[in-house]
């Protein structure tokens, strides 16, 4: 079914990250749908290991310049874009010097989780939503990949609940065996600033518990890895949203 507008939101994408199943899956799914004649766009963070020169990223001035307010602190949003190497499909990068300049994803060189991972996820989720609206492009499907992307349904169903821009958009989420970590920097206060309160995940806030929260808010849950670790498998089994087992990238069109 061509001519669908499909937005992939991911934290990893080949070739910007090379050694992960998520990066490979999102690359293959997006290219499959793009080559089938759909209007496909991909959004991801511009982590510091992504070379702007090598991958020919350039800033989109008309989309940049917004500020995202997190817990009463203004953070400037920069939008950069590039074509996937050897392809014509565009990838949009959410950037901010404070949150995404560092070379690592979520953990420092000693394996300690960054204390601002919660703010980075909030900034990324709101940055994607605001930029899509600024593009004046309404996706038929938003396919979410990675724990950071799981904040998007949370915000769409709460902070943006009275905004009908995405009212006809279907939300799909893929679950991957990502490393878990706790949020230890008062995420409850930061979400409360955006009028988001009372989430069960706040009792023990972590990457995976926020994934579990988002599974309740989407239209379809997929396994991103063929076999999930026990706690993720339990989340998958227990969720009431429609779900499908692992689907190969070549067959992803059947999902949409």
UniProtKB/TrEMBL annotation:
Pfam family, one: Glyco_transf_5
Enzyme class: transferase
Domain Starch synthase catalytic, chain residue ranges per copy: 5-195
EC code(s) of this entry: 2.4.1.21
Keyword annotations from UniProtKB, A to Z: Glycosyltransferase, Transferase
Gene3D superfamilies: Glycogen Phosphorylase B
Molecular-function GO term, any one: alpha-1,4-glucan glucosyltransferase (ADP-glucose donor) activity
Catalytic activity annotation: [(1->4)-alpha-D-glucosyl](n) + ADP-alpha-D-glucose = [(1->4)-alpha-D-glucosyl](n+1) + ADP + H(+)
UniProt protein name: starch synthase
């Amino acid at each position: 079914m061509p001519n669908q507008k499909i937005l992939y939101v991911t934290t990893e994408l080949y070739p910007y990250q090379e050694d992960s199943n998520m990066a490979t899956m999102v690359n293959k799914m997006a290219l499959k749908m793009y080559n089938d004649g759909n209007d496909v766009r991909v959004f991801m963070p511009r982590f510091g290991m992504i070379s702007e020169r090598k991958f020919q990223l350039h800033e989109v001035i008309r989309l940049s310049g917004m500020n995202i307010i997190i817990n009463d602190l203004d953070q400037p949003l920069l939008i950069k874009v590039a074509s996937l190497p050897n392809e014509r499909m565009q990838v949009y990068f959410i950037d901010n010097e404070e949150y995404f300049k560092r070379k690592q994803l979520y953990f420092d060189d000693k394996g300690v989780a960054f204390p601002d991972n919660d703010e980075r996820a909030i900034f990324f989720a709101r940055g994607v939503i605001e930029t899509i609206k600024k593009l004046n492009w309404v996706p038929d499907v938003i396919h979410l990949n990675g724990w950071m992307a799981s904040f998007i349904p949370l915000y769409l169903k709460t902070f943006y609940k009275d905004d009908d821009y995405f009212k006809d958009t279907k939300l799909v989420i893929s679950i991957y065996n990502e490393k878990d970590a706790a949020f230890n920097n008062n995420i409850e206060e930061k979400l409360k600033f955006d009028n988001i309160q009372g989430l069960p995940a706040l009792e023990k806030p972590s990457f995976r518990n926020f994934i579990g929260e988002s599974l309740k808010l989407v239209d379809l849950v997929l396994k991103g890895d063929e076999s999930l670790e026990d706690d993720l498998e339990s989340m998958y089994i227990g969720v009431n949203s429609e779900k499908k087992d692992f689907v190969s990238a070549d067959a992803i069109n059947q999902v949409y």
